[in-house]
Amino acid sequence: MIADVMSEATERMDRAVEAAKEDFATVRTGRANPQLFQRLMVDYYGTPTPLQQLASLQNPEARTLIVTPYDKSALKAIEDAIRDMPNLGANPTNDGNIVRITMPELTAERRKEYVKLVRTKAEDAKVRIRGIRRQIKDDLDALKDEIGEDDIVRAEKELDALTKAHVDKVDEALKHKEAELLEV
């Protein structure tokens, strides 16, 4: 019974950490990275469609990305979606076959803004992890009638250690992303 609750807690916290890492990947650094466009939706014949389903992304140089659409008729829609993307600051060019995106150099001020954004995303992830902990603790409290008090206390200590480990994983990912952002 307790093992099931703890395995659910581990699984949910792991997903929260992975979601935080994916969130971090969407914040641009000095280098062009195809993961920046992971959540970009393109209006393809009136339907919002993920960019990965419409085109391939290549990274030939540090600050350049090439988007090659599978359907050439989607070229203009892809270009517009990239241009309208917030926090990117890139101006895509379309040569009739591909969209070339050259990322501008990040200023020190812009880097600091991105660090603040990443820290906010990390704090949101920690809040999600703590919320999961609270829900699991409530589940454990509901089991008090069926299981002994000592087992519940032991499980709560294990839950606290699990929560700390996952918060530390988010902090480690944050530290890595900050270093990447501040690297010139």
Topology, please?
Elements: H1 2-25, E1 41-44, E2 47-50, H2 51-54, E3 55-61, E4 64-69, H3 75-83, E5 93-94, E6 99-102, H4 108-142, H5 149-182
Antiparallel strand pairs: 1-2, 3-4, 4-6, 5-6
Which features does this protein show?
single chain; 184 residues; alpha+beta; two-stranded antiparallel sheet; 5 helices
Overview of this protein structure:
- This protein is an alpha+beta fold.
- Helix content is about 60%, strand content about 15%.
- The chain has 5 helices and 6 strands.
- It has helices spanning about 1-25, 50-55, 75-85, 110-140, 150-180, and strands at about 40-45, 45-50, 55-60, 65-70, 95, 100.
- The protein has a 4-stranded antiparallel sheet with strand order 3-4-6-5.
Instruction: Note the run of SSEs as H and E.
Output: HEEHEEHEEHH
Strand tally is 6
Q: What integer is the average pLDDT? A: 88
Helical fraction: 55-70%
Strand line-up across the major sheet: 3-4-6-5
**Anisotropy-based shape:** elongated
Assembly annotation: single chain
In short:
The chain has 184 residues and is of the alpha+beta class. It is built from five helices and six strands; from the N terminus they run H-E-E-H-E-E-H-E-E-H-H. A hairpin with a 2-residue loop joins strand 1 and strand 2.
